[in-house]
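Lab channel / #folding
Pinned by the channel admin:
"Please post every new chain as: sequence first, then the C-alpha cells as a reply. Keep commentary short and put observations after the output so the thread stays searchable."

First post following the new format, from NK:
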Amino acid sequence: PRIAKALPKWVMPDHLTILGIVAAISIAVGYILTRFSIWWIWFANFGLLVHWFADSLDGTLARVRHTERENYGYFVDHICDAVTTFLVCFGLGASPLMDMRTGMYLAVGYFMLNIYVHIAAYSMGVFRLSYSRLGPTEVRILIIIANIIVIFWNPVIYHIFGQPVRALDAVGILVGTGFLIVFAISVIKDAIELDREDRAKRIDMNA
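Reply from TO:
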C-alpha cells in the first residue's frame, strides 16, 4: 500500500495493467534474442521485475484509491495472467534455451491447473492462489535465478530421436509434469468431496 500511495495521481490501475503486458512481451523478446547473445536474458529478467511491479500494484492501487471494479478487475487480471504465461513459455520455446514443445507442455500444464483453480473457486468457494507455499512472487524469483544459471550452465544432457534436450528442457518437463500431477490429484480429491456433499444434501432433502 505504501508504494501505491506514493504513485503520482495520473498513474491509474489500467496503466499498470498495460505496463504488465508490455513487460510480458519484453520477457518473451528477451528470451528470443538469446539466439544472438545469451546476455539478452538480462532483458528478460528486467521484464520479470517490471511485470512483478505492475502485477502486484494494479489491484492494490485500485483499492487504495477506492476505484475497484470487481468484475472488470477479476476478468482483466486473469486474462492478462494467461497472456503472460503464453508469452513467457513461447519466448522460452523460441529461444535456444528450451525446445518449443517443452515450452508449450509447460504452458498446457499451467493452464490446466489454472482452469481447475477457477472451477474450484466456483464449485467450492475456495480460490487457491499458490501451491506448496509458492506464490507469484516466489515463482518470479525462481525464474530469475534459473535465467542467471543458464547463462553459465545449460548443457545438452541427452538426445531424443536425435534432438538435443538441454537441462532447462528437463526442468520444464518436470515442472509441467508437476502441474499435471497436482491438477489430477486436486481434481480427484475435490470431485470426491463434491460428490459426498451433494449426496448428503439429497439425503437431507428426502429425509
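NK: The beta strands are 156-160, 163-166.
TO: also worth noting, Residues 167-206 form the longest helix (40 residues).
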